[in-house]
Amino acid sequence: MEERHGPGSRILGAIKSAETMICGVGLILTTLLIFAQVINRYILHFEIMILNDLALYLFVFFMLLAAAYTTWNEGHVAVDMFKEWLVKGRPVAAGAYRVFLVLLSIVILCVLLPIAYAFMRRAIEYPEYGTLVRWFNTSWLQILVFWSLLLVLLHLLVIVRRDFGQLIQAIRAGSRKEGR
After folding, report:
1. Residue 93 vs residues 62, 83, 100: alpha-carbon distances, Å
2. For 145-167, what is each residue's pLDDT tens digit?
3. Distance between CA 149 and CA 130 in Å, rounded?
4. Residues 62, 23 contacting (CB under 8 angstroms)
5. How far apart are CA 20 and CA 16, in angstroms?
6. CB-side exposure of 134: number of CA atoms within 13 Å?
7. Do 60 and 33 form a contact (C-beta atoms < 8 A)?
8. DSSP annotation of 129
């Protein structure tokens, strides 16, 4: 399927680039914070609780964003061994399988989105503050869950559009081979 270069694909490319950059920085930052805590706790015997909280919050933030990133890279959509066994050598069946899995993911996500939205609204209406840093509002985690799921949905819609187009092409190619 040919790649389109309109404003929509540029926006999606920018979102993917931002997700990649943020997840990469988050991985490095979280690793450094956890490493510092290990050094503090086990070598210096001096634990800094705020660093624990910060590492936890950063980990959760970047983990949720990584869900959108892995969806874009299709890291969660298929169980490869089962797929290979089921549709090996049959491009139409492989295309139908991919479309089915992505559509199933979209349906499940659409069931979860209203729940995440309700949690987000509650988090906005009733902020919850950290135990160690009293002024730190931890409700942003619930808000982030909803927005991460929206990014996952956006990526799934792009993937299903592409996979459906590839399925149609495979069906047409199969019809032409049978028509010879």
Report:
1. 35, 10, 10
2. 899 899 889 889 998 999 898 88
3. 24
4. yes
5. 6
6. 0
7. no
8. B
Residue 34: CB atoms within 10 Å: 16
Query: In the beta sheet, which residues pair with residue 137?
Result: 129
pLDDT at 81: 61
pLDDT, position 125: 92
* Spatial separation of the C-alpha atoms in residues 128 and 40, rounded to whole Å: 28
Q: What residues does each domain of the chain span?
A: 7-179
Residue 170 exposure: Cα atoms within 13 Å on the Cβ side:
17
Mean pLDDT of all residues in 63-89: 68
Phi, psi of 62 (to 5 degrees): -75, -30
Per-residue tokens: 152: 């996952």
Q: What is the pLDDT of residues 84-141, one digit of tens each?
A: 677 777 778 888 888 888 898 899 999 999 999 999 999 899 888 776 667 777 788 8
